[in-house]
Records
---
Amino acid sequence: MADLPDPKKVLILGAGMVALPAANLLSGAGVDVFIACRTLDRAEGLSNRIGGTPIALDVTNADDLDREVAKVDVVVSLVPYTWHPLVIRSAIRNKKNVVTTSYVSPAMLELEEEVKAAGITVMNEIGLDPGIDHLYAVKVIDEVHRAGGKILSFVSYCGGLPAPEASDNPLGYKFSWSPRGVLLALQNSAKYYKDGKMQEVPGQKLMASAQPYIIYPGFAFVAYPNRDSTPYKERYNIPEAHTIIRGSLRYQGFPEFVQVLVDSGFLNQDEHKLLVSSDRAVGWKEVLQSLLGTRTSDEEDLVSAITAKSHFRDAAEKDRILAGFRWLGLFSDDKITPGLKTPLDTLCATLEQKMQYGPMERDMAILQHRFEIEHSDGKKVSCFPTTRTCTVSARSFVCTSSLALIQVDKQEIRTSTLLEYSDPDPEKVPISAMGRLVGIPCAVATMFVLDGTISTPGILAPMDPKINDPLMKALKEHGIECIEKTTYKET
């Protein structure tokens, strides 16, 4: 990254877990960082750590937002994605550049002509997923295409999880922010291509679609599709691909547990009569009785109703999930958090209390792309079995032994994998693995917008090697890199 003439100024909207590593990198590079949050104390807490300037700001107040945007060179919007159009409109009015880690939404795309007319850059989708996933997907696809090859299959899974030793609860999951968004995402429908056919999974069956998925044998992962993968045939320029799946990773046991929560009515977002009308402290078993419609709140009746509504693979799975319900207190007289009117919000309050990271516990982020590749000569790959060191060219697998090259049909499977753990060292500023892998790419992209490396006017995402290659090089300097490996299977 080029040195910046004179101190540049960046306004970061939001003070969550992504803001800290982003602000820390920018401040360390000599950028004047302004941290804006609805509540001043949160902005002060982050600003004090990185030597920034705290600001109390409500982004829905256009006049206040314009006043702060006008003072800086780039706005980094880390607020919920529904507010990005408000931020972009302010940037248009003030002719300032913007960076976000969010997917480009239809509402953002509607502003593209105004963005171009203002001559500003709005760089998006530059975190982990989306972000680093795009960088390494485009890299491999571009390499294969330039060599005349084809991508037959593209499968990509990503997950933010507790490290294995910290996955010590019935969900094998912990929350560093509100569980609500995580649980809502588990009810989204999914669409993808599989073996040339479009497949759709309705939201209520998403968890049932999860399957075991091996990245490293030491991890007990399951994978399920995430939202709509079909646009990536065009976005990644792989019309030849017969399979395109982008999805999420969790530990085994997670989908089955969540499915029983769904079956029991806990993920319902509608106001519930007991929660709305009660003027007294309500216990969890009374809430569960109301959701299930049982005669009593005795555990025996509640378990019988759950068993009737849900499918369990075997007795061991049933026992495990019911033990998880007990661990959460759902069969007990434990009081729910008052003032919440929906089953979802009531459950989220309990999950947030019981499933936080403890001191010195690590989180983990993992991403893997898996490509099936056909080379330009029509061969899947050419190889000769050997234990010697071998290299891959566009057309053949070449053994560095004295043996002659023999052409055998094998299919190249190339993976691109990133695994990151947080550092629990109490002497260091606590930064989660997910926060680092979203915040650092965001900050690097912001530096590139500041120094003009990224300067094309419009609503951008990292889909072009001209943008991506410098980003990957800079991220590697920060220890962030996907590791590529190649294996083969006979066809």
Note: Residues 433-451 form the longest helix (19 residues).
---
Amino acid sequence: MFAEYTEFDITIQDGIIIHGRHGGKGPPLLLLHGFPQNHRIWHRVAGQLAECYTVVALDLRGYGASSKPPGDERHETYSKHAMAQDCVDVMSALGHDSFYICAHDRGARVTHKLCVDHPQRVRKAILLDIAPTLVMYEKTDFTFAKAYYHWFFLIQDAPYPEKLIGANPEAFIGYGGGGRPRDAIVFFGQECYDSYLDGLKDPATVHAMCEDYRASASIDMDDHRKDNEAGRKIQCPLMVLWSEHGVIEKCFSPIIEWKNVSSSTVAGENVDCGHYIPEESPAVVLEKILEFLKD
């Protein structure tokens, strides 16, 4: 797993340390993971991508082996604005002024804000299994709320969700709601499963994950509204891929929604798999990355 990659721990703003791995040759490609995972979600495509790109796969603030600062009253610490700045700072530290991005779930939400805040840094972006956060909250219906119950559980005041998850992290990761597979060990592979479960056993990580969601339901929505009102949009070409069997397909119109917040081209399609596209359909992810990012 990531055999040809080099690990890094880069100190950025406010003493935050971002952990990750980088390797390969070619134009820079940033890979961002989702919840409740870490950079290992890319292990089934990392080797082949490194043949064409200089790949940077990092753990978002609060996840994996990156720093986990305590949350604050306004949830600014885990705002997507702050987490996007982390990514820009890491890429700058590694010598990459502009880069491609492929991101899943929470990482894709960070990427949305990164594209808006730092349009000159992103050449093209691929977003996996999300619609814009503001749209998803404002258009919530019963089908979405039932499937993504965790969106409303994790935003409850601390330490309520933290304590419940901490009481039985194995049950939480094994529950099939929100797109998570019930046979998680078989699905993720033992090494990845163990690393994800270790995160859910760590109180600081669980608190950070909850703060990530609390930020999305508060300060991130405010930021999205301000961006919309000011006409700040994604300026780079965008590809979106989503699960044929998930809530993005059932509850939203992803191409339309992403066109509404983009000033460049938007392409995409559904994929015959569940939520965890990089691990469920790595061949499709690899094919789409190579196809979309080529000049």
Note: The CA atoms of residues 234 and 262 lie 4 Å apart.
---
Amino acid sequence: MPFPDTLKKNPKIIFFTDFDGTITLNDSNDWLTDNLGFGEERRKQGDADTLSNKVTFRDMFWEMMESVKTPFPECIRLLCENIKLDPYFKDFYQWSRENEVPVIVLSAGMTPIIRSLLVHLIGPEAADVEIVSNEVVDKPGKTKDQEDGWQLKYRDDSGFGHDKSLTIRPYAEHFAKRPNEPRPTLLYAGDGVSDLSAARETDLLFAKKGHDLITYCEREGIPFTIFEDWQSILATTKEIFEGKTSLKEVAAEGMEKAQETEQDIETTK
């Protein structure tokens, strides 16, 4: 349920999360581009150019999706065959439902793809997950079930196409104006370039090991902890939920892990 309805049950935690490469093991948009579009090499160069601010994510992602000419229903069918769920996300999602922790998917991808994959990979209970993402529309004179018949419809006019911070920020602003109300802890999990706009907005960021988001957080001084899968996210979130650890302690441990990883990389060079 959208803001402010999310707050009606006074949740202790609100968990925002990226979808592709975070909830899933592989990225559906990358898969489409690599297998049906202009290919992996050009896509990876686009990621690097975005991270170094040479191009906007909006422009890079538009080019990726425009290179895919396959009818949209066929894209969804192929993705359902090839995209895998993190093996522990289902456990996390079940725990979140049992403890009334809202899970809100913030994605630079496309809502119909995400909804189809969630229901396919988790089951019908995933049909009510809140998804804030881009949409898909027919190209002029065509329909989505035709070759080269669909295109992105971005959620906003930002350089991201979907500025995830715009969904998170109202929660922080709400409680800043109401200091006497119990404030939920705001958490976020992500892995890459599309998560840059959200990285500053929550109390703690879970950044996926070995991915671009860690580089950005270290450079910008953003509190984060590293995760490899949703088993570790669930364990840490439970400890925060139960008051067994603090955000400061988790962030300090995350920075230590990141530094240890960097040292290991230097040692093996």
Note: The CA atoms of residues 161 and 249 lie 34 Å apart.
---
Amino acid sequence: MADLQRAFGWLAQPRNPATVLHGKRNVREPVPQKVSTISVPSSPLTKAVLEYAEKELPHPTFNHSMRVYYYGKAMHIDQFPDWQLSDETYLLTCLLHDIGTTDKNLTATLMSFEFYGGMLALNLLKELQAPVQQAEGVAEAIMRHQDLGETGKITTIGLLIQMATIFDNMGGHSELVHKETIEDVVKHYPRQKWSSCFASTIRKENELKPWAHTTALGEEDFPNGVQDNQLMAPYD
């Protein structure tokens, strides 16, 4: 049971990335990683969720989700090789983490997109007969992927997707991934002006739902930070 929990991401990590980085810019210097050499699960469950994501997500959001997988895996390989998690569970989380931002889902509920998206993911994975611990691990990580802070704990997959999304969205944790890795990932999954696209989505949710959890990151600071992503500007 404990091994399954760890594999599905149920291991507590400090919520503050500086703690797992030991107060440094990185644990070790990153090396170039290629899309072709990073393993991608191909189980029936993964294939079903991949098909669902490609159908439901706008193409820029799907590409972002895949970039988050590869950037997170590069961080895992280079910085945190001792972290125990399954690539399948992390990929499922990446594919579904922004499902709540689609036009259909954003207007289907009064809930913040992360929480509604987590519920959608939980229901989908249960329908696809994923192990309950895995489905719940994905849902929790999605619900908390914008729950940034310096206190308390979070699951392993929750922290990894936080760091990878901040990297792709705002250029945060820029010292954790090699420049050549960015170039290769973007070549396979182009950004398609993602910075302006996601900034627009943030503003749309904040307008529709002034109580949205996204406002905790700064009603203006967050969308402006996304729009002004200098690390990824050359690729947008």
Note: The first strand starts at residue 12 and ends at 14.
